[in-house]
Amino acid sequence: MNDKRLMNRAADNIRILAASMVEKANSGHPGGAMGGADFINVLYSEFLTYDPENPAWEGRDRFFLDPGHMSPMLYSTLALAGKFTIDELKQFRQWGSPTPGHPERDLMRGIENTSGPLGQGHTFAVGAAIAAKFLQARFGEEAMPQTIYAYISDGGVQEEISQGAGRIAGTLGLDNLIMFYDSNDIQLSTETKDVTIEDTAKKYEAWGWKVICIDGNDADAIRAALTEAKAEKERPTLIIGHTVMGKGARKADGSSYEANCATHGAPLGGDAYINTIKNLGGDPENPFVIFPEVAELYAKRAEELKKIVADKYAAKKAWSEKNPEKAVLLERYFAGKAPEVDWKAIEQKPNSATRAASATVLGALAQQVGNMIVASADLSNSDKTDGFLKKTHAFKKGDFSGAFFQAGVAELTMACCCIGMALHGGVIPACGTFFVFSDYMKPAVRMAALMEAPVKFIWTHDAFRVGEDGPTHEPVEQEAQIRLMEKLQNHKGRNSMLVLRPADAEETTEAWRLAMENTETPTALILSRQNIVNLPAGNNYAQVAKGAYIVAGSDEHPDVILVASGSEVSTLVAGAELLHKDGVKVRIVSVPSEGLFRSQAPGYQETVIPYGAKVFGLTAGLPVTLEGLVGIHGKIWGLSSFGFSAPYKVLDEKLGFTAENVYKQVKQML
Length: 670
Description:
Layout: H1 4-25, H2 30-47, E1 62-65, H3 71-80, H4 86-90, H5 120-139, E2 148-153, H6 154-158, H7 161-171, E3 177-183, H8 200-206, E4 210-215, H9 219-231, E5 237-242, H10 270-279, H11 292-322, H12 324-335, H13 354-368, E6 372-376, H14 386-389, E7 404-406, H15 411-424, E8 428-434, H16 438-451, E9 456-460, H17 478-487, E10 498-500, H18 505-517, E11 523-526, E12 549-552, E13 560-564, H19 568-581, E14 586-590, H20 594-598, H21 602-608, E15 615-618, H22 627-630, E16 635-637, H23 648-655, H24 659-669
Parallel strand pairs: 1-2, 2-3, 3-5, 4-5, 6-7, 6-8, 8-9, 9-11, 10-11, 13-14, 13-15, 15-16
Antiparallel strand pairs: 12-14
């Protein structure tokens, strides 16, 4: 146990560095970072177990920061631990800096997740805790001994996703999850009491959490709470730390600047900043300093970690010697490589709905991929993720031997949990729901793309052909929105997401193969509710990997090229038969992924859709979905309104998604 005066000095050191980072950048949020300094100092100097020499060690504890605006607190603490230099702290929020305004995932420097939108970060932690339980059930605590820590603020508690995260963690009894709630009663523009009167402790207790309430600025109380939480073996723990926003801050006149909304989201400024640094025991002329006694505290922790980690490695080595096959398997899982799957052995039923074809693939994956976790938002028998579930069983409190996650009706929460699983590592997460409900998931999908988390998003009921469910359930604009992610590049210059809408059952198998082989970005699989006639015989489905390919009528000089993805390709095939009778030379191109197609060599793209060719596109979504493929000489038949309630075959007829209308539109174009 460290001396309390030393612990307070270290926390003040974090406060000084955090406030100074914001001051120098003239941008940021000092107040929360200053209030939370005591907790993060106790966590990192006494509890968090990690290997400073091997940050990617799979058995490490993980810390998920939900309020990303409090990144100065994390950066400052990691500087004390030797992960950032003082010069790097001085570059906070600057171009090319490793200390951006909200922390980007940087495993080598100890940053587990990109925290931006409030509520997502602690939900990632719930997913990581699920992944840890899943792996512990297979390999034991000697191999996977970690605790997942999360940090949440008033804003994160208020975001609706926190309800899903709290419910799931409590229901599953995630006793490996410890969350600190920084309850300082101050928000960006108002006091917390002005927007909520709920009893947070009772709420979490109702969800099945252990709740501990403490003075969140008291190192001894924090230590005792963490010790108690670590001993809990039945429930996740919420530590409600009542903290002081802007602790230690002083105004220009020397009076207290604590518990003030003004410190939340702006630099302290001028004399207020100077007085604050003096009050905290720093030098305003040279604030970017790690105090000698604080450096010694963290050097001592580094030595402690060497012994702790050595013991963990020794336990794992002994386990590996007793379980050599499991040891190899664990290493393979954390290597993050694509799993080996016998794709050729997967037999699809012809003319099936692509959601049903997906179920066939998922059944094979459940038997062949031992580290895959599939989730569904209470729709497994409709989005057909039950193809996976039938070969395993769902997670339950105390039993993570299965591989299915019943998330309940909470699409955003489910997506974030799956992202947390991917961030934890060692598992391959996938989650399913109706495509129209991807709207609930967009913030998480964006974060998955930003962090390059290879989650597989399974979206079924892909078009207006949902029919009788009516326009509320019929996606129209959703494909155009998701395909924007194909056009957005990540920091590595790759498309930020792989989006695949297969045209028949066999393309679905290939789409799943590409999804499983994609370990660099998230993947979207957009699947039909209704049956689809298979593409013409002799089709080379391996070309799905090129994003777009010729599936019929490969004339060297076609009169027209017909382009579509998904269900609409079979409609083009039927329309082409009518055009052939009129002597029109037709080429049909299936484009499951425009992003993949545009990444091919220009020569290949030209052989499929030559520049200047007459192109007709058919899409059940907005016409803009195909604009990049059809070009200025073409024509697109799509939707310009929401859907309607009727049987899908009636809708096809009424909305012009028939062979006869393809014939009519192409003839008019020619």
